[in-house]
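MOLECULE: protein
FOLLOWS: sequence and fold
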Amino acid sequence: MALDGKTAIVTGSGRGLGLAYARELARQGAAVVVNDVDSAVAEEAVAVIKADGGRAVAVVAPVGSTETAKALVAAAVENFGGLDILVTNAGVLRDKSLLKMTDEDFDLVINVHLRGTFTCVREAYAYFKENNVAGRIITIGSPTGQRGNFGQTNYAAAKAGIVGMVRTWALEMKKAGVTANAVIPVAATAMTKTVPYFAAAVEAEERGEAMPDFFRKELGFGTAEDVAGLIAFLASEDAAGITGQAIGVGGDRLQLWSHPEAVASEYRDGGWTYQDLAAAFPFAGSLQGVGEKFPPLPEELQPQTADSK
């Protein structure tokens, strides 16, 4: 198995995407430290991994603090003898439009996603350097962090910040042989299950059927298990040369997101005054769009209303 003898921490792995990552890492041979804020959920996840034939222990704590980061690394070392892989998946949502979003809504999401990623990566990297481990850091981004989404100021800021940190860490960790990458998953989650646009895909999954090709191919939208293979690959020796990247995955689609680059440049002798720009802004026809643009649903995949049944 590709990860035989390795140990991984997966934050926020009691259910959903995080559990899918933890199970796949265990299937590939890694011992896993499961993390969740709910002890019953965490212990159930451990039981599932053990039933699969894997090894796992649970740390019940909210990520964000240095204390939790230290506890996670300590659990890996004390139970399995070391640490090789960190997947920072833990997250929360507090979606509200800007004027309705409170300080508490903003701070909670930033603390769990952004600060939680920072503290856990810092602690894991310290262990890697001290013990000469060519470890793997895998963070979780989002299309919202890449393009924005209505009502998600806090979440967009956190997810964009995570990708920015990954690019920095790839530079700082290169000499130690540690890789750092961000995965941008697109999958059925508790959040997407409430969106009517994805109803046909979610219903198919709940029936144990394959999602329609429109979702898996056109949208790159699939199950949590569709994302897990990339997590395990980036954790392996086969991905030793991949670092500083944002890689999207969902359904049948794999994507490499670009780093931000200038899309157009114009020059003017003496620089650009207000009057010059007001007279003829040179990029009026090249402005970038924001947010996700979904294609229309095929008629047969549109949600059924009471009148249409």
